[in-house]
Amino acid sequence: MDCIFCKIIEGTIPSSKVYESEHVLAFKDIQPAAPVHILIIPKKHIPTMNEVADEDDAVIAELFSAARHIAREQGVAEAGYRLINNVNSDGGQVVYHLHLHLLGGSKLGPLLADKLS
To answer: Pick the catalytic residue: 23, 37, 97, 99?
Structure first.
């Protein structure tokens, strides 16, 4: 598979991991749009939110559980943070492996669409 996130999961591309469980991996974005910019991905390859199946409900819940944990660990939970999931090209998705962007560490403006992928 030619998915960059799948290669990060298998370890053939290095990343700055901040969280890992059996089903979820999170790492620092290499082009951060905020002081804290973490990508949270399922280890199962799911191209977009549109392809999430009923049997994926548990891993989707785990993505959000990981986000809460990471926000606390990164020190942004109390001040606030943003979770973004881009879907398909009009939604700004560039990497076709489901992922959440966790952004925080400063006051976020109303839109960051040009800075996220």
So the answer is: 99
